[in-house]
Amino acid sequence: MIRAPRPVVRTENGLWAFERVLQRSGFRHVAGADEAGRGACAGPLVVAAVVLPEGRRGEVPGLADSKLLTERARERAYDEVLERALGVEVVVVPPQEVDRCGLHVMNVRAMRQAVGRLDPCPSYVLTDGFPIAGMPAPTLAVWKGDRVAACVAAASVVAKVTRDRIMVDLARQHPAYGFEVHKGYSTPEHQAAMAAHGPCPEHRFSYVNVRACVRQTGPMPTAPVRTSA
Description:
Helix content is 39%, strand content 13%. It is of the alpha/beta class. It has a domain at 14-170: Nucleotidyltransferase, domain 5 (2-Layer Sandwich), CATH 3.30.420. Strand 1 and strand 2 form a beta hairpin.
């Protein structure tokens, strides 16, 4: 991993503080990376990486951690990010790959892929929560990065909106589970649907709560048992 100089952040710059100090230090293209779907037991893991432009052009109206925004506000922020960003990349990891390789392994791999595909190539990378080795630029893990760094918040919004749209499409293919409502997370309604109908191919069969609902008469994938993230 390239060792990253740690920025000294001025909090009065708000969500854009990290980018401002890094850009003033010569790191022009600051990328943020984040994922959506870690805690879900159905549907894909989606990772996004975003490079926002410097200055006012990179200040996306209404941008915040995707989990703090309403669906309508996320959609507006998503459109603004796509319009303003210098680079956006998305990697979709199907549930079968999560089962085969493990959630964390695929999360790290997808983040490397998303950042590595960015054009322009980032000069510095901010990730949410935990460090990622093997990035093409100096990297810093930021605690609650999607709430304090604009590029990470932008990646959070892109990943969340992309994944939500995928789950709505999957709901049309598998209407018994209510994917359009809970987006694959383990709500009581989702658990009840799995208990009544058994899991579908879009579930993560390595998760204990999914395996518990596999019908005894149906085929059972041979993925290793992992606990839900």
